[in-house]
Each structure stands twice: as structure tokens, then as C-alpha cells.
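A.,

Following up on our hallway conversation. C-alpha cells first:
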């Protein structure tokens, strides 16, 4: 069983500002769980005028207590109900045509729940940005322009599937009778959950993931609006100052974002 979520909304900001804010959205007051971001690959194709970027986000994650009750003890390892997880992000931006496509997916706990989010950002008006415009003038030069965002999220749980396939392989047939522990061969559980089938557990996990996805999308939009408001108020400089302040409040002087800025500053000084 697969769950889908789709939503659309618009930012009252021009596409150049929104696409820039997307890459500068961490850290922000609504994303305190994001620990670090690393650029793995970045490539600009002059023929198509497209910028392709691959980034890796490290986030602090916590499994809901209700979900923990559904999972066998120790399945999450030593992290228990809280830990860190990696999110892979890929994006393609075409500033000339005014669109950006992004895709993110979790790299941890994919057997329990795989979440893939796709977003399409589009310029609402057909106005073009002057080639001589500086980055700080993007908002002023396109005041009447907005940006539409369409988000599609796919959630799929494969919890218990590997064990079913393994046991079916041992019996030598894919059409064998249900295994004795549950009707679909799900892991043995005690108490109330012992009567649940694998498909029931998967649907429950996906529904919990869907609820958290809706909450996360709302916070993500709020975080983007914070970055965009800073950009409108003081340009790129205000955005960077706000990022430093958010990092200091969340991690102190020795946080991962602070260390990344210091390393970048040291590299620039050496050049």
C-alpha cells in the first residue's frame, strides 16, 4: 500500500528570490532539527542554462512513541527513539525559463518507511529579469511576480516484507499458506499487536508518516518565509546574518554550521 500527498501554494516573492531562499533555508527557526548540509555535487550546463545540485542533509529525528510500539525491540539499533538520519536532496534550476525541480528522500529506516518528496517551483508571470540586475535587486525588479510550488510526497512502508519473502523462499513457493505467527508472516508481537497483519502495520506506519509529512511541509513553508522576509528587508547580507544567529541560538559557538563557515573563511583567506 502506498500513500500520496499533494499540495500547491504560492509565495508572494519572485522566482529568483524563492530559488535562492531554497538553498539558504537551513538553518532557520522552524528547522532546528537540521544539523548540517553538505554539497555533494554541483554542475552548470551552459547549453541548457540549468544548475544541478546534490546535497546531503543531516537531521535529528525521533520516532513517534506510537510507532515504537509497533516495531520489534532493537530494530532501530542503539539510537532508540531518537537519533540522526540523512536526507538526500537533488535539484535542477533553470533561471532563464523560471522553474526549479527538487527531490528529497530519506536514506535511513527505508525498510520501515520510505518518503520521497518532489517539488516543482514555477514563475507565475512571464516577466524576465534584466541580465544586469544584481542579486540584491531581484525582489525590487520583480515585485509583481510570484512563485507557485507544487509538492508531491510518496510514502511506502516495506516493514515485514523481507521476512515474508525470506520465509516464502524457504518453503520453495510464493503461494504457500499463511505462516503460523500471523496471517501474512509478520514478526511475532505480544499483546494487541500480535493480531495485526503485515499489511495492517504497513498502512498504520504510512498513515503516521503522512501526518508528520503534513506538519513538516507547513513548517518548511514557514521557514522559507522567514528567509524570504530577511531577503526583502536586507538582501543577501541579512539572510546570512540570520543564518548565523539561528545557528548560534541552536548550537552555540561550536555548532556544525559555525565550523563550516570558519572552514570556508579559512579557505578564502588561503586563496
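Then the amino acids I'd put at each of the 271 positions:
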Amino acid at each position: 500500500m502506498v500513500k500520496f500527498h499533494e499540495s500547491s501554494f504560492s509565495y508572494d516573492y519572485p522566482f529568483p528570490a524563492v530559488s535562492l531562499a531554497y538553498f539558504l533555508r537551513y538553518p532557520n527557526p522552524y528547522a532546528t532539527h537540521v544539523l548540517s548540509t553538505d554539497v555533494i555535487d554541483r554542475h552548470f550546463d551552459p547549453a541548457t542554462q540549468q544548475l544541478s545540485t546534490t546535497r546531503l542533509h543531516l537531521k535529528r529525528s525521533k520516532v513517534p512513541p506510537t510507532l515504537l510500539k509497533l516495531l520489534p525491540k532493537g530494530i532501530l539499533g542503539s539510537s532508540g527513539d531518537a537519533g540522526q538520519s540523512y536526507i538526500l536532496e537533488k535539484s535542477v534550476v533553470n533561471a532563464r525559463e523560471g522553474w526549479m525541480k527538487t527531490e528529497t528522500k530519506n536514506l535511513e529506516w527505508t525498510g520501515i518507511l520510505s518518503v520521497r518528496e518532489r517539488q516543482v517551483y514555477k514563475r507565475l508571470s512571464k516577466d524576465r529579469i534584466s541580465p544586469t540586475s544584481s542579486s540584491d535587486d531581484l525582489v525590487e525588479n520583480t515585485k509583481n511576480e510570484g512563485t507557485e510550488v507544487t509538492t508531491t510526497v510518496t510514502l511506502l512502508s516495506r516493514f515485514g516484507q523481507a521476512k515474508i519473502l525470506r520465509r516464502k523462499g524457504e518453503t520453495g513457493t510464493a503461494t504457500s499458506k499463511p505462516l503460523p505467527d500471523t496471517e501474512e508472516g509478520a514478526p511475532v508481537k505480544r499483546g494487541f499487536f500480535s493480531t495485526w497483519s503485515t499489511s495492517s502495520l504497513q498502512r498504520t506506519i504510512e498513515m503516521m508518516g503522512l501526518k508528520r509529512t503534513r506538519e513538516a511541509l507547513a513548517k518548511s513553508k514557514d521557514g522559507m518565509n522567514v528567509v524570504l522576509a530577511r531577503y526583502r528587508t536586507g538582501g543577501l547580507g541579512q539572510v546570512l546574518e540570520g543564518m548565523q544567529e539561528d545557528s548560534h541560538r541552536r548550537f552555540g559557538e561550536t555548532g556544525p554550521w559555525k565550523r563550516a563557515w570558519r572552514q570556508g573563511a579559512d579557505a578564502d583567506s588561503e586563496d
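Residues 128-132, 174-186, 188-192 have pLDDT under 50 and may be disordered. Curious whether your intuition agrees with the design.

B.
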